[in-house]
Design goal:
By secondary structure, the chain is of the alpha/beta class. The chain has two domains: about 270 residues, Aldehyde Dehydrogenase, Chain A, domain 1 (3-Layer(aba) Sandwich); about 180 residues, Aldehyde Dehydrogenase, Chain A, domain 2 (3-Layer(aba) Sandwich). It has 13 helices and 24 strands. The strands form seven sheets. It has a seven-stranded mixed beta sheet with strand order 15-18-19-14-13-21-22, with helices on both faces. Strands 10-9-8-11-12 form a five-stranded parallel beta sheet, with helices on both faces. It has a three-stranded mixed beta sheet with strand order 1-5-4, with helices on one face. The N and C termini lie far apart (about 80 Å). The relative contact order is 0.14. Bound molecules: 2-aminohexanedioic acid. 2-aminohexanedioic acid binds next to loops.
Length: about 500
């Protein structure tokens, strides 16, 4: 068995044990005998110390020129690249996705480090002409202070990087509470930043559980900005608690992402895309394809192909190079997925493939479930409306594009959506009419790149976008500056009106 990491909180540049005196364990979800890490179980006192450290580090970090802050991120990108293999291994061990996907998680963080790092040399504001003579005006971005971040386990390196790196290049300092099922990857990311020259206290890590470590961070009066990715239920609480103190809160919550197939689509392409987006990451992406909405004429042949592919998928420990789909992240998630499979059955959907936990042999010590396909799903069924966060695909048959778009939009969420067709008019209609923050044409619902905005509409979020040029908006405050060099009082809206 590989090494067990024993990690204290990182506060003010030092590793310190939790004041609670308690720790918690993380075991490999593919093999519970493998103890991946032992972490501090933090409480409010630990959060207070971390916020104090971030607050103390803020004035000097804010003053460091943005291009210099960016250089640290660019150096960190190189370190991440050099350690990609080791960090991928850590990531697979802690949350289960296969090694090749874990590598993608690290690559996403490398991309973000390059993108955010180079933003240190842009961070554009605007200048505009004045209505008055001899007057100059401009707007510029300013950092805000200490940013609190609560990150999920499903992309433990990538999502931490989406939040942390733009916040840092803007000049903020950070306290992060990583998902308790995957804390090692946050330490790996921060290790690279520290070796690249990040001063002590600029990023602080507090590990633990939501109610005891997350909530004190959300409620801390010295944390004016909160960035949260996770469930809608917890997101609502973060939003409510943040609102009481008029905090800025960014939420990335659930999805129920549709993939629409028109009868002129290239079915080979559809087959590959659906298998990747429904069962990749064991369906545990907010962007996973969970509804396949297919035109009736091609439904039969497509279902045959998908069932054959789902049955052939190699499910196993993500550390084995041949594995295509890993375990679910923990026992609760396994129970939730199995419950939803029961719900689908009792609602009258047809279980065409999978549907059971995998037990015995190599599966004995992990949380494995078969890739599962339901057909005959009707849009009002719970399996067609609620986020399952597992490898369960619900197939709904329709007559037309109009019907497909109406069903696609008729859910609470709106993160990503996809359409497969060769009809350019249908493609443009989908781009405009699908209620989603991200739309794919002839590609599945997963695989967003970091230099375009990421986020969703309706219950998926609250209007913010991570990544892309929009990534700075949450982490900076606009300041407008007017310079009057006329030497006299010029009254705007009064002296410039005849
Ligand atoms: C998530 O599922 O929370 O677009 C993030 C994608 C990845 C990120 C997913 N780049 O699928």
């Amino acid at each position: 068995m590989a090494e067990t990491r024993r990690l204290h909180n990182l506060i003010g540049g030092k590793f310190v044990p939790s004041t609670t005196g308690r720790t918690f364990e993380r075991r490999n979800p593919a093999d519970q005998r493998d103890l991946v890490g032992i972490f501090a179980e933090s409480g409010a006192d630990d959060v207070n110390a971390a916020v104090a450290a971030a607050k103390a580090a803020y004035p000097a970090w804010r003053k460091l020129p943005a291009p210099r802050r960016g250089e640290i991120l660019l150096r960190a990108a190189e370190l991440l690249q050099a350690r990609k293999e080791r960090y991928s291994h850590d990531l697979t061990r802690e949350m289960g996705k296969p090694l090749f996907e874990a590598g993608g998680d690290i690559v996403e963080a490398i991309g973000m480090a390059q993108y955010a790092g180079s933003e240190g040399r842009r961070m554009h504001g605007v200048t505009t002409p004045s209505e008055l003579p001899n007057k100059f005006q401009m707007s510029m971005r300013q950092p805000i202070g200490v940013v609190g971040m609560i990150t999920p386990w499903n992309f433990p390196m990538a999502i931490a990087s989406w939040k942390m790196l733009p916040a840092l290049v803007c000049g903020n300092t950070v306290v992060i509470k990583p998902g308790e099922d995957a804390s090692v990857s946050t330490y790996n990311l921060v290790e690279c930043l520290v070796e690249a020259g990040l001063p002590p206290g600029v990023v602080n890590i507090v590990t633990g559980y939501g109610p005891t470590a997350g909530q004190p961070l959300v409620e801390h009066p010295d944390v004016p900005v909160l960035s949260f990715t996770g469930s809608t239920e917890v997101g609502r609480l973060v939003y409510e608690l943040g609102a009481r103190q008029i905090k800025r809160v960014s939420l990335e919550l659930g999805g129920k992402n549709p993939l629409i197939v028109m009868d002129d689509a290239d079915l080979d392409l559809v087959e590959q895309g659906v298998v990747w987006a429904a069962f990749g990451t064991t369906g545990q992406r907010c962007t996973a394809t969970s509804r396949l909405i297919v035109q009736r004429r091609v439904a039969g042949p497509l279902i045959e192909r998908l069932v054959a592919r789902a049955r052939a998928l190699r499910v196993g420990n993500g550390l084995h190079p041949a594995t295509e789909m890993g375990p679910l992240v923990n026992g609760d998630q396994l129970r939730r997925v199995l419950e939803y499979i029961e719900v689908g059955r009792s609602e009258g959907a047809i279980l065409r493939s999978g549907g059971a936990q995998l037990k015995g042999g190599d599966y004995e010590h992990g949380f494995f479930v078969q890739p599962t396909i339901f057909t005959g799903v009707r849009p009002e069924m719970r399996i067609a409306r609620e986020e399952i966060f597992g490898p369960v695909l619900s197939i709904i048959e329709v007559e037309s594009l109009d019907e497909a778009i109406a069903i696609a939009n008729d859910v609470a969420y709106g993160l990503s959506a996809a359409l497969y067709t060769r009809d350019i008019n249908a493609a443009y209609r989908a781009m405009h009419e699908l209620e989603a923050g991200i739309v794919y044409i002839n590609a599945p619902t997963i695989g967003a790149e970091i230099h375009l905005p990421f986020g969703g509409v309706k219950a998926t979020g609250n209007g913010h976008r991570e990544a892309g040029p929009t990534m700075l908006d949450l982490f900076s405050e606009w300041k407008s500056v007017y310079v009057d060099y006329s030497g006299s009082l010029q009254r705007a809206q009064i002296d410039n009106i005849d």
